[in-house]
Every structure is written in C-alpha cells, then in structure tokens.
Specification:
The chain has 108 residues and is α+β, with helices and mostly antiparallel strands. It contains one helix and five strands; from the N terminus they run H-E-E-E-E-E. Its main location: membrane.
C-alpha cells in the first residue's frame, strides 16, 4: 500500500485552556459589536425614518431625488409608486417614490 495512516492530533494541545480560546476570539467579537452599534444600527434608524417620510409625502413637500434634482411634490397617492414632482415652473416630472433620497421641507 502507498498510503500511510494519518493520526489525528489531540483535541486540546498541552497547556491550552478555554480561557486562551476566549481571549483569541474577544477582539473579533468586540469589532463586530462596534460595527453593529456605530454603523449598522444608525443606518437602520435612518432608513426607517426615510421610509416613514416617504409614506407621509403630500402636496407641497420639497424633496431631493437620487439624481440630485430638487422639486416640489405636486401629486401623490398613498398606494402609488410614482409621484409628480415640479422641478421648474410648469415642468412636472413623474418619479418613483423609492428614488427620493430625502425630504428637504415638509409642508405643515
């Protein structure tokens, strides 16, 4: 036979403990927690706020599209995916509600 038998290494090397394993994983867990609290959680809050603003859009609100166009909402319905935005006097375009990146001023 050409294959020699391979023997598995022992599960825990001599002198190693579970504390050493915890110390090795601690920086990775700490980095994951920092990423979550500094990056992911604030982004989720911002997305939730924008979604609420988009669902509450009404005539007269000033919005910015993803393309950077600033305009005033002229026509919207609650269940429609498109809204009409006036970008210049007598120039109205229809944009997707999902392409609005922010609401600049909301009409009270």
């Amino acid at each position: 036979m050409f294959i020699t038998p391979a023997f598995a290494q022992t599960a825990v090397p001599a002198g190693a403990s579970s504390f050493a394993t915890i110390v090795q994983w601690a920086p990775i867990v700490l980095m994951a927690a920092v990423f979550y609290f500094l990056l992911i959680l604030p982004q989720q809050k911002q997305q939730k706020k924008l979604k609420a603003q988009l669902s509450a859009l009404k005539r007269g609100d000033k919005v910015v599209t993803a393309g950077g166009i600033i305009g005033t909402v002229k026509k919207t319905t609650d269940d429609a995916t498109e809204i009409d935005v006036e970008i210049a006097p007598n120039v109205t375009v229809s944009v997707l509600r999902s392409t609005i990146s922010s609401v600049v001023t909301a009409k009270a």
